[in-house]
Amino acid sequence: MKKKIAFGIGRCAACDSDKWKFLFKSTEMRHGIAGEWDVCGCRSCGLMRIFPFPEKLLKYYPEDYTAYYAYKTKDLPNYKKLALKRHYSYSHLKVESSFKDLLKSELYFAYTKLSGNRIIPFRNGLLFDVGAGVGEFLESQGKLGWDVGGIDFSEHACRIAKKHGIDVQFGDYLKANLKKKAAVVNATFILEHLPNPNAFFIKTHAVLEKKSLLVFDVPNAKALDLALFKNNCYALDSPRHLFVYSPRSLLLMLERNGFVVKKILYPANPSHFIKSVNLWLKSKGFKFSFSPTNKIFYFVTIPLSLLHKSSEITVYAEKN
Questions:
Q1: To 10 degrees, the CA torsion angle through 215, 216, 221, 226?
Q2: What angle do CA 286, 287, 288 make, to 5 degrees?
Q3: Below-70 pLDDT ranges, the chain
Q4: Which residues contact residue 286 at a Cβ distance below 8 angstroms, ignoring those fewer than 6 apart?
Q5: Whole-model pTM?
Q6: Staple partner for 3: which of 21, 32, 99, 147, CB 3.0–4.6 Å?
């Protein structure tokens, strides 16, 4: 069926085109909040966005939003630490290992390469997490030797992080003053929430040391579950997700804002795909669902990763 032309949206944040197509209607699926938004796609670069943006976005982030949970961290097993030490520049880690650990570490390394699993290579300096939530990621990275810090706009999340001894400041990243330049800026599923992604890249370019790294994850506009399930796609998450990014749209924005893309991964983690299936089943009145950790789905998501059709994209970009 021919897609309808969408008018009045403005210019694309990635390629500056003003040509959009209407794709489908979307609603808020996770917390029962009323509203309806058009999902439109840029005809030039494939960037997707909702229209219009919500006027009061914060009301769509209740305190039971999934990023704001209490947690307990666990130390990595020896074989994972050994893989980090051998392949990801974590030479400072002290690991007592057996032949079994060595074998498991190489299998784990092979798995990370096959499945597009995101691991940040170690470098000296600050790892700063944008949208740090309750600080779980920062605590795990601190245990691996990083100097860590972060920011989040939820006071509730920052209070939980403080209880864990993690320095997550409350505030707006775009207006924040960092105490020192960062060696790595991490943003795990943050960019899709921001109304001005170019402002994020400009800010990040300013806070990074030269030749330092931006690592971020976003939903994939080319994902199979988005094409199949549309509004029931978990990663769409209207209206909290204002954008869904195509690889081309990301390349254009990063290049424009002074970054060189070093690597793009298409993670095979099945969690988002399974949650999309569950939302679709619920919408059809089915009473059963799949566990988000069901490993059977790797038979689906690993091929999708290889075809660049996975639910998410991970980008490693270096500051020029």
A1: 130
A2: 100
A3: 1-7, 63-72
A4: none
A5: 0.91
A6: 21
